[in-house]
């Protein structure tokens, strides 16, 4: 809505600001206001298909050149409550808080002309914005997913009531109104002039919405319409000293990619007002101030199956490419599969890893049987831990080991658990699906040797194959809908970052009693040897791998809540590794972090 009600055309008109705005004698009638007077001027552009595209100054504000006016001071101050004229404000540090949906942002913007001459402007905007910035090989890709305009704080001819107690005249822009508390001017010259030596104050209030607009995601994916947490750092705006500080927040994001929220105050003027001479006058950003806030939203719960949409999309692609879906399987893996099924070791409703158990001999090693590790299929949840809070996050993982083979009894050498933080991002186009556990790791791993099975091997590589098939089909003259080709290319081009955190101080539990793992006996069950136990751990005791010992625990490492959006997603899982004297078993279990 803001794009059609508060906007200026990209090329300035010949409006004369020295003339007072129109007045209306009959306040009982709705005035017929011209497009210019209502600030609803847009510029029509045409895309390659000849279709009209509406471009407004708010949509293109990042592309406007900046000519910072040194004589103009612009500041944003946050307050705990709504600002009231004549009352001392209760100033607060918004950077020390974490906000969520429904919270209010109160404060005021001050603008001061420190020169001896009036400074002419065209528009003042006070906005609350959410922005995703993706690092690319060229310039960063910016995607603004939230923009809210405070109509009272922004400049306009109208007098807009801010409080329920206000009874203002909408056609009276209150010239000369002064706040008796600090002597600031509450109204700006209707001729759009900042007078010399005058400090202007504009109160603002924003309520953080519960979710984004439904049409924000072109695919209509519910999770993409939810507010994301703040993630990453805008390195251009953060001092180098803070980036190098040991106390800075580490949320394991991709370098130079981030999700940010901020209250912005922007003064826009014509280039000619600052002596910039060109063939065609244009708008510039005369001054801009940004105050970031940290957003950690409450979780949203969905009672639908995202796999349904994903499988429908895959079927539509496979109907076009008809790929060879049977992968190349080694002879050893085929033998393991045959033995695995003949022993009836398959466990439904469980995540499971199956490996050949190798018996070492003087001449090498030989298959002595099959060993598997399984755990019940469930999603483990822990609460988000704010920085420097030291809250425990205890999790208990039930594990079953099952061995079928020769008389040799397996011996467990070591058990490790890691928390994996996976960041997924798309550089140019929105992600067309919602990610599920099925895309992160397979329910069953039946392998002849240890291998890495993750999001890249399961999903990204598959769509790389689809993309090659589609490209070949296009060369052969097959007509393919562009949206399908683009979505396949997007999934094939996803970039990922895996950060593994080692979980320290594991405990082993059987029947609610701590035990030593070697004391848990192997029991005979349906002709197999079975060992059942649970791994108890405190996930707040996580260490970054390969770094010095100062970065320990979730006091130093911040795991933001799990989320998915059109361009960046963050998911977690736990990697359980059991090393025996004849095989190494690895199992991935889903983990969700919620506020």
Automatic annotation (TrEMBL):
Residues 50-303 form the Bul1 N-terminal domain. It holds the Pfam family Bul1_C. It comes from the Eukaryota. InterPro entries: Bul1-like, Bul1_C, Bul1_N. Residues 405-501, 556-594 form the Bul1 C-terminal domain. PANTHER family: BYPASS OF STOP CODON PROTEIN 5-RELATED. This is Bul1 C-terminal domain-containing protein. It comes from Candida theae.
